[in-house]
Amino acid sequence: MEKVSKRQNFLKKGVMTLSVACASLILLSTTTLEAKGPLTTEVKTQAVQKTSLSEERINTVLKEAYEKFKNNQDGKNADYIKALAIVDSKIFGITLVTPNGKVYEIGDTKAEVSIQSISKVFTACMVLQEKGNKFLQEKIGVNATGLAFNSIIAIELHGGSASNPFVNAGAIQATSWVEAKDSKERWAKIYANMDDFAGKKLNFNEEVYDSEVNDNKNNQAIAKILDARGRMGSDPLEATTVYTKQCSVNVSAHDLGVMASTLANHGTNPKTGKKILDEKHVPKILAVMATAGLYDNAGDWLYNTGTPAKSGVGGGILAVVPGKMGIGIVSPPLDKFGNSVRGQLAAEYIIEKLGINPLAQ
Ligand code: GLN
Fold this sequence. Notes:
Elements: H1 2-35, H2 37-51, H3 55-69, H4 82-85, E1 93-97, E2 103-107, E3 113-114, H5 119-131, H6 133-140, H7 153-157, H8 168-177, H9 183-198, H10 206-213, H11 217-228, H12 236-247, E4 250-251, H13 253-264, H14 282-292, H15 298-305, E5 309-311, E6 316-321, E7 325-330, H16 341-354
Antiparallel strand pairs: 1-2, 1-7, 3-4, 5-6, 6-7
The protein binds glutamine (GLN).
């Protein structure tokens, strides 16, 4: 009997201690939350935002963005590459792809344009993968130029270096460093890598390629200067031709959305499940996209969206919301920097309305 009551006493005491502990914990957490009053409100606001990112909400915002900007007439097609001037300026497609492969899209999302400078992202990924982070930083560079994407003077101003893989100089350089026995193999690898990012075989635009390859003196001059400074990994003229080929691959807004979602999904394509880029390299490529993805408009873009992104003079734009969303947009008319006008407006609107600016999380 005595033993039992002793045990009961012990249990009673235990329960009491536990209740006191729990009560103080509750008290503690309430106090913590109360002490930071405004935080409580913030937590609530965030929770509301998260729940409101429903399929319905995403589709509504996509539709709003499309309707709001589809008749915008600002900007004009690139014409320094003749074949780009005749592409239908009305094309406008928007695709969002989540890291688990869910697709939301509106407009001409299957219409294809040449990928142009957006290809620079994927070739730089190959350099990261094959040669590592330090190589990209030291041999090519990761700083913005503050000058036009095809500037020659930028090379001289940066001590004979390209400064980053998203201006033509750095992109041709990156192409030259892709490991291969000859330029044929180099091109095949670069093309296959873009296919992997898109999760399908991408078309090649012969018309754009012919137009650019026969009128390529500025890019050839860039490659020759870099070669003279010991910065090229293979023959400069061959590398320029391979670079021109990579710019002539066709993509749609849908393709760009999938490619962006592969970066949003830490380097694994959500559509095919194939790992394309090591996770450790993803923040590196995203950092350069944030710094220089929209050339000398990169600061305004980052200010407005907080996203790493890349544009091309074909009218494509790709933006990455890490862990949340890949955004692909196609609309050919460009601003004076070479970035799609409707593409930028639509992406800014969507990111703002969905509350997915990565710098605001
Ligand atoms: N192929 C184009 C060029 O070399 C790419 C430029 C771009 O898209 N910004 O000029």
